[in-house]
Every structure is written in C-alpha cells, then in structure tokens.
Amino acid sequence: MKKLGGVVAALLVAGCNGSGDKSESAGVDSERIDCALEGAKAFDRDCTVSEMRGADGTTLVVGRPDVGYRRLQITTDGRGVVSADGAEPANVTIVGEGMIEVAIGADRYRLPANTGGAK
C-alpha cells in the first residue's frame, strides 16, 4: 500500500471540476465517478460526487444510484479524506497517478486526487 503523504486539501476539488461525466441532482452539479458497491469486484460509473463548502472546510457528498450517499471531509493533514458520517472509517489508497480509492465498509469509490507528492 502506498503512503498518502502529499495528498492535500485541493486533491479532489480540483479533480472534480472538469474531467468526469456531469449529472444534475437537486440543482447541484455533480461529477460521475467509478464505484463498486456492496462488495462488487467491478467498478461502474454509477456514483456522483459534489462538494459542499462550510465553516469546517470542504465536504464531498458521494451519491449512490440507490439514492443513498456518503459524506467525506477533505483533510489538510495528508490523509486525503475521512468519513464525515462517523459510522465507518474511510480507508484511502492511492491507485494510480491522480487517483485514490476510498473504501468505506463494503463500498469503494475512485476519486480524482492530487497525488503528486505521495511516496
């Protein structure tokens, strides 16, 4: 497993603003991302991600096709993201140049990230 040392706060926000498929959800622009839900081995481009900015920083809302969602808080300490829902931890792994995989329970999400400083 690769270390996340250089993944920074702008990691996902910058990546989500222009390269993925767009979708509209409740009037909010969302980007389509790959996800493997409920233990699936294969990834499908079925999930969406949008951002919310607030006093506590930036939170990503990852939407599922079954109308469920997960919230991920972007960190500034090199971890990338943490689960903002608190129930299950988010395990983050760098899976390629500019891409991280976030596993929460039996679900996995692939998100664009600034992985340039990771070792």
TrEMBL record:
PROSITE patterns: PROKAR_LIPOPROTEIN. It comes from the Bacteria. This is Lipoprotein. It comes from Sphingopyxis lindanitolerans.
